[in-house]
């Protein structure tokens, strides 16, 4: 009974210490990353499907005109599947790296007492002492060995900084590209507003058109390729157009959230790496 009570007390103490040493910046960034990626991938996938239906229903009657577009849309949808899987895995790794390196940094500054796992990992990250008595090795052999193995792989913040930096640059391009369909749909919606309220524009309703060819969505020989006047207004009023437009906006917001999370990860990892490298030069642990 006494041993069981001591074990429960030790478990609670371990959890309390882990909470004290939690990397809150990494936790927030992970949640933002998962939310942003889910929003971007889920809404982006459905928005591309809606775009495909709009093109083949209203802008072209010949399958050969939009066959290439359909292949590109399907390729992007497969890329979305891979992107979602990669980011959920990499986000989890960054969170683990945040826990480990933050624990090592806070141990250096003496903010809290580490557990057996934290000591083993911190020694791996900071290049600390490896000597240990036989009795201590026997007591913490299993847990510390697991943490030491994890530390060999996760205890390299410099690698994570480089990978996250490169990933942020790539995602910045994705973020810019996700704004393109929003711009196209917004222009179309603005044209529809001009048709619905002709008093606000000097142009005739028949000359107000949405041309898919000018955006490179369809080839120039596609027929009809554009929709004008009241026909365009009827398209803008459909639930399909409205839903696709809002899905692209949601995907754009998700891309922005993911970009912010990557920047947060990069700043946190850079700070931890700088502290560990600086303190590791003149101090032995």
Looking at this protein, list some descriptive labels.
single chain, 285 residues, mainly alpha, 2 strands, 79% helix, 2% strand, elongated
Describe the structure.
The protein has 285 residues and is mostly helical. The chain is built from 9 helices and 2 strands, in the order H-H-H-H-H-H-H-E-E-H-H. It has helices at residues 2-20, 24-59, 63-109, 116-126, 134-139, 141-154, 157-196, 229-236, 239-282, and strands spanning 209-211, 226-228. Strands 1-2 form a two-stranded antiparallel ribbon. Helix 3 packs across helix 4 (116-126). The protein is elongated.
Indicate the topology.
Layout: H1 2-20, H2 24-59, H3 63-109, H4 116-126, H5 134-139, H6 141-154, H7 157-196, E1 209-211, E2 226-228, H8 229-236, H9 239-282
Antiparallel strand pairs: 1-2
Helix pairs in contact: 2-3, 2-9, 3-4, 3-9, 4-6, 7-8, 7-9
Main pleated sheet: 2 strands, antiparallel
Work out the strand percent.
Answer: under 5%
Counting DSSP E segments of at least 2 residues, the number of strands comes to 2
Instruction: Supply the helix-strand structural class.
Output: mainly alpha
Low-confidence stretches: 112-136, 281-285
Mean pLDDT: 78
């Amino acid at each position: 009974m006494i041993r069981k009570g001591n074990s429960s007390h030790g478990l609670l103490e371990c959890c309390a210490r882990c909470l004290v040493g939690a990397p809150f910046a990494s936790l927030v960034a992970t949640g933002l990353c998962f939310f942003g990626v889910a929003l971007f991938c889920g809404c982006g996938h459905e928005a591309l499907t809606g775009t495909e239906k709009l093109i083949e229903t209203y802008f072209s009657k010949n399958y050969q005109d939009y066959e290439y577009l359909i292949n590109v849309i399907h390729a992007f949808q497969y890329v979305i599947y891979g992107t979602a899987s990669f980011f959920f895995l990499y986000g989890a790794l960054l969170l683990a790296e945040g826990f480990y390196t933050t624990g090592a940094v806070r141990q250096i500054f003496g903010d809290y007492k580490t557990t057996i796992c934290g000591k083993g990992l911190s020694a791996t990250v900071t290049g600390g002492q490896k000597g240990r008595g036989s009795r201590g090795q026997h007591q913490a052999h299993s847990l510390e060995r697991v943490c030491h193995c994890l530390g060999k792989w996760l205890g390299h913040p410099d690698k994570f900084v480089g990978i996250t930096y490169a990933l942020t640059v790539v995602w910045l391009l994705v973020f810019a590209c996700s704004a393109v369909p929003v711009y196209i749909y917004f222009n179309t919606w603005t044209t529809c507003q001009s048709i619905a309220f002709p008093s606000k524009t000097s142009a005739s309703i028949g000359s107000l058109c949405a041309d898919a060819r000018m955006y490179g969505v369809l080839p120039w020989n596609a027929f009809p390729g554009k929709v004008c006047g009241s026909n365009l207004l009827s398209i803008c009023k459909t639930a399909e157009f409205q839903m696709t437009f809002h899905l692209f906006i949601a995907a754009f917001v998700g891309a922005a959230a993911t970009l912010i999370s990557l920047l947060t990860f990069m700043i946190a990892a850079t700070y931890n790496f700088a502290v560990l490298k600086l303190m590791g030069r003149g101090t032995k642990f």
